Amino acid sequence: MAFGEVVHYVIQPAGWPEPVRGIASLLSPFHCLDSSLRPSNEHPANASSSTFSEPLVSREVPAPGPYTAKDFQVLIHSTAAGLIALAELPHYGGERSTVPLWSQLLHALLNTLSPDVLILEDAPFVMPRAQNVASQPSNLIDGHATLIAAHGIFSTPRTHSGSSRTSSRNEEDKDESMYSADSDSCDGSGSVDSLDLPLQAHMLPGRGRCLSAVLPVLLVADSNNIIPLLCSTLYQRHVWGICQPVVGLCCSRTGTTAMAIFGWLDSDQSEEGCMATHLALAADDRLDPSMGVFDFTDTRSSISLAQFVLGLRTHFQDIKGAISIEAVDSLTPLHWRSDLPDFETQLEGRLDERVASWTYQVHVQTSSSEASSSSTPRTPSPLLDTALVSYETMSSPFLHTIVEDEEVHGANACLPQETRVTKVKERGRGSQPRSSKNSSKRTGPSPQPPAEIRSSTSSRAPSPYANSRFATLSDTGLKDGLTISNWLFERHAFTVGRIPVLSKELADTTGINAMVEIYDQMTTFTWSDSIKVILSNAEADSLVSDIRTELCNTDGSPDCQSSTINVPSSEDAEFISSRISILLHAVNGARQCDDVAKLHGANEADRRHGWDALLLNFFQPVFGQRDVLLERQLNLPRNLAADDSSFATRARFVASTYVTLCSTQFTSLVTTTDTSGSWEQAMVAQRQAMQFVVDLGQRNTEEKFVEVVAHHSSLDPCTGKCDAILVIPCPGVATAMLQRISGVDQQENFLKSFMLIQGLKPEKSDSNAVENSSQIGKTIGHRQKTTSGRSLQVPSSSSRISESDRNKLHNPFLYHPDSNQATQKKETVLPKNIPRDEPSGKDLLLPVLLAEYKKRDESAISTAMNQMKTYLVSAVTFLSKLGITDQPVFGLVVNGTLGAITMGWKTNGQIYIMERNVRHYDIRDPFQALQFVSILPRLARHGHSLRRLLEKQLASIDVNKLTSKPWSKLPQRQEDERLAAAEQTGLEQSLAQDRS
Question: pTM for this one?
Answer without folding.
Answer: 0.78
